[in-house]
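Action item from last meeting closed. Structure (609 res):
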C-alpha cells in the first residue's frame, strides 16, 4: 500500500455549490413560496417550498474515451447502433446541465473506469501513470476526461484493482473527485482504505441547502479476482453489511437524499460459488434490506436497466435503481423533486431513465485534451510484431477446437514449462483457456499488437495449478454446462447452443494437452467422455499441472477445485504480452506449430461437426 486517503483528504468531501446559477435556473421546480424556517439564517425572506435536482450516472466505462474500436482500428460499430466513449456522454451531460441549471445536476459513476481498452492498457503498462525510472508519469486519459466533465464521485469497480494498488492510488490522486469504496477496508485495521462517502450541498436561495449523501460500494469479488494485488492488504465485506453501517450515518449528518453508487448488479447472484460469504450482484438486496436509501446507480453487469423499483422490507418505501449499460452506451438520469417541511427537505417524487448518446457529437474540448493520447495508442496498437501463415479466426471458437485458441494454449504451456521445478516438470502439463471474443481474427500476413490484443482482451496473468484426474474431469464438466442439452437426432443450432444458465463465453474453458468429447445430448454433469492423456484414459489419482489465468486460478466463475489447488507456477506478466513476445521471437505464427484438435462436441457419441 502507498498511503491512506484518510491522511490525504478530508474523510468527507463537502462541496458547496454557489447559488447564483441556481437562482437563474428557478424555472425548474421552484414552486410556491413559504417563509424560511427560523434558525437557518434566512430571517423573513421568502423561500422556495419545492425544489428539483438530478443525478446523472455512468458505469463500466472501461477506458472508453472516444467512439473508437482499437482492436478493429476503426470507429466503433455494433448491430444495435450504439456509440461508445465519455466524449459523447459529455455532450449529453452538458445538455442536461443547460436544461436544468448547472447547480441542479450531480454527476456520479459506478466503477470499472481504468481497464478495458488499449488506451487504458497503454497508460497502465506501456507509459504508466505511475512513471518509470524515477520520472513522473502522464495523466490518465480517464482522469482528464472525467475532471473536465466535473464528476462529483465515482465508486471503485473491481477492474480498478487489475493494475495493482499503486496504479489505482495514482489515478485517485489525478482525479478531482473522490473514488468511493465503503466496503474496501485495510486488511489489518479494518478501517476504510478509500473514502466511503461524500456529501454534496445543493444551494437553494433563501432556504436550507439540500444535502445529498453519496455512498460508494464495490464488489467483494475483488478479493478473489485480484487476490494477487489485494491479498493481505485489503478486504471487501458485503454491500448490505457496509450500507447498514453508513446509510444511518449519512442520515445522522442531516442528508436529505441518500444516493448509492454500487459496482454490483441487480439480481442477487454470484459467480464464485461458495468461495465468499458475500453476494456479487447485491444492489437489489441493499435496496430491500437497508432502510433510508432513495436511489441506487447500479454497475458491474453491463446491462441496461432504465428504471427499476425495489420496496424496502422495513419501511415499505420505494428505492429507485437504474443501470446505464456500459462503455458510455447510455447515461442514467435520476430526477428528484423535494418539498420543504419544517426546515427539512423531503423527497416527494423520483424517476429514472436512460439516455442514448449516439445522436450527439463528441465533446470538442475532450477531443482537444486527449486527441494526442488517442493517436499515440492507435500508432502503438498498429505496431507489427510478426507475420502469420494463415488467417486465424475465433468465429467458431465457442463450439469447435480452432487453431486461434491453440495459440493461447501453446503460449501458456511453453511459458509454464520454463518455470516449473524439476519435480513438477515430470508431471503432465496441460492448459485451459476461454474464448473471450468471437470477432477476434489474426490475419494472414502482418500481425500487429491489436490483432493479438483483440484475441486476449483481458489483462490476466499466468498461473499453473495442480489438479488430479478426477478434479480435472469435474472442472471440464463444469465448463460443459455452457451448452444447452440437445438430444441425439436433434439438429444443433449454434445460435442457441451456448450461454446456458447465463454461463458466458469468458466463463467457458477448453483444455489442451488432453483429449475429450463433450456429449451435449447428456444432462449437465455427465457430458465429459473419453478423457485421455497421450492415448491412455486419465486416472482419478493422476496429477496434472494446469496452466490457467489468474482470474480462474483465484476462483473466478466458480470453477471447482482450482482456487484451493496447489500452485506450481505464477507470473506477474500478462498472458497477452507473452503472446506478443512469442510472435516477436518466432517472427512467424504458423498453425502447423500448435494447432491440434483434441476436443469435440458429440451427441450420444456422434460428432456434431
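Sequence:
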Amino acid at each position: 500500500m502507498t498511503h491512506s486517503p484518510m491522511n490525504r483528504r478530508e474523510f468527507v468531501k463537502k462541496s458547496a455549490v454557489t447559488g447564483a446559477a441556481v437562482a437563474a435556473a428557478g424555472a425548474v421546480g421552484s414552486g410556491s413560496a413559504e417563509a424560511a424556517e427560523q434558525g437557518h439564517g434566512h430571517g423573513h425572506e421568502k423561500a422556495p417550498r419545492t425544489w428539483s435536482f438530478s443525478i446523472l450516472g455512468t458505469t463500466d466505462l472501461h477506458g472508453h474515451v472516444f467512439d473508437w474500436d482499437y482492436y478493429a482500428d476503426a470507429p466503433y460499430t455494433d448491430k444495435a447502433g450504439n456509440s461508445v466513449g465519455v466524449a459523447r456522454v459529455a455532450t449529453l451531460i452538458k445538455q442536461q446541465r443547460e436544461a436544468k441549471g448547472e447547480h441542479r445536476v450531480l454527476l456520479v459513476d459506478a466503477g470499472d473506469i481504468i481497464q478495458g481498452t488499449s488506451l487504458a492498457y497503454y497508460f497502465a503498462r506501456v507509459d504508466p501513470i505511475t512513471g518509470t525510472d524515477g520520472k513522473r508519469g502522464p495523466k490518465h486519459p480517464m482522469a482528464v476526461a472525467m475532471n473536465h466533465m466535473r464528476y462529483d464521485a465515482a465508486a471503485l469497480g473491481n477492474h480498478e484493482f487489475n493494475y495493482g494498488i499503486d496504479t489505482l492510488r495514482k489515478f485517485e490522486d489525478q482525479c478531482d473527485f473522490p473514488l468511493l469504496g465503503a466496503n474496501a477496508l485495510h486488511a489489518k485495521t479494518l478501517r476504510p482504505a478509500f473514502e466511503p462517502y461524500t456529501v454534496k450541498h445543493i444551494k437553494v436561495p433563501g432556504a436550507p441547502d439540500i444535502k445529498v449523501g453519496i455512498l460508494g460500494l464495490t464488489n467483494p469479488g475483488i478479493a478473489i479476482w485480484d487476490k494477487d494485488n489485494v491479498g493481505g492488504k485489503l478486504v471487501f465485506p458485503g454491500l448490505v453489511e457496509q450500507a447498514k453501517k453508513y446509510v444511518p450515518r449519512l442520515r445522522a449528518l442531516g442528508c436529505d437524499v441518500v444516493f448509492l453508487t454500487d459496482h454490483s448488479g441487480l439480481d442477487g447472484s454470484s459467480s464464485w460459488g461458495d468461495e465468499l460469504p458475500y453476494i456479487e450482484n447485491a444492489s437489489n438486496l441493499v435496496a430491500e434490506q437497508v432502510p433510508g436509501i432513495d436511489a441506487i446507480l447500479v454497475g458491474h453487469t453491463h446491462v441496461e436497466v432504465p428504471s427499476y423499483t425495489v420496496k424496502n422490507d422495513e419501511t415499505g418505501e420505494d428505492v429507485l435503481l437504474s443501470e446505464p449499460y456500459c462503455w458510455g452506451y447510455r447515461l442514467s438520469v435520476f430526477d428528484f423533486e423535494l418539498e420543504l417541511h419544517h426546515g427539512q427537505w423531503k423527497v416527494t417524487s423520483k424517476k429514472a431513465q436512460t439516455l442514448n448518446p449516439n445522436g450527439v457529437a463528441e465533446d470538442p474540448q475532450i477531443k482537444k485534451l486527449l486527441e494526442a493520447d488517442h493517436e499515440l495508442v492507435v500508432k502503438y496498437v498498429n505496431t507489427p510484431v510478426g507475420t502469420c501463415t494463415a488467417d486465424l479466426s475465433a468465429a467458431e471458437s465457442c463450439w469447435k477446437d480452432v487453431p486461434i485458441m491453440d495459440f493461447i494454449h501453446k503460449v501458456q504451456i511453453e511459458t509454464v514449462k520454463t518455470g516449473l521445478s524439476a519435480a513438477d516438470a515430470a508431471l503432465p502439463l496441460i492448459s485451459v483457456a476461454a474464448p473471450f471474443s468471437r470477432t477476434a481474427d489474426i490475419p494472414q500476413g502482418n500481425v500487429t499488437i491489436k490483432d493479438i490484443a483483440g484475441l486476449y482482451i483481458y489483462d490476466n496473468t499466468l498461473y499453473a495449478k495442480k489438479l488430479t484426474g478426477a478434479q480435472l474431469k469435474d472442472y471440464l464438466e463444469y465448463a460443459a454446462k455452457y451448452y444447452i442439452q440437445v438430444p441425439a437426432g436433434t439438429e444443433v443450432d449454434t445460435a442457441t447452443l451456448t450461454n446456458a444458465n447465463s454461463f458466458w463465453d469468458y466463463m467457458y474453458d477448453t483444455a489442451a494437452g488432453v483429449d475429450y468429447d463433450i456429449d451435449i445430448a447428456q444432462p449437465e454433469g455427465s457430458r465429459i467422455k473419453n478423457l485421455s492423456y497421450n492415448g491412455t484414459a486419465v486416472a482419478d489419482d493422476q496429477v496434472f499441472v494446469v496452466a490457467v489465468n489468474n482470474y480462474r486460478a483465484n476462483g473466478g466463475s466458480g470453477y471447482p477445485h482450482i482456487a484451493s489447488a496447489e500452485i506450481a507456477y505464477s507470473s506477474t506478466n500478462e498472458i497477452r504480452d507473452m503472446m506478443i513476445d512469442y510472435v516477436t521471437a518466432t517472427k512467424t505464427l504458423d498453425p502447423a506449430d500448435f494447432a491440434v484438435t483434441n476436443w469435440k462436441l458429440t451427441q450420444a457419441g456422434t460428432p456434431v461437426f
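Note appended to the action item: The CA atoms of residues 57 and 234 lie 27 Å apart.
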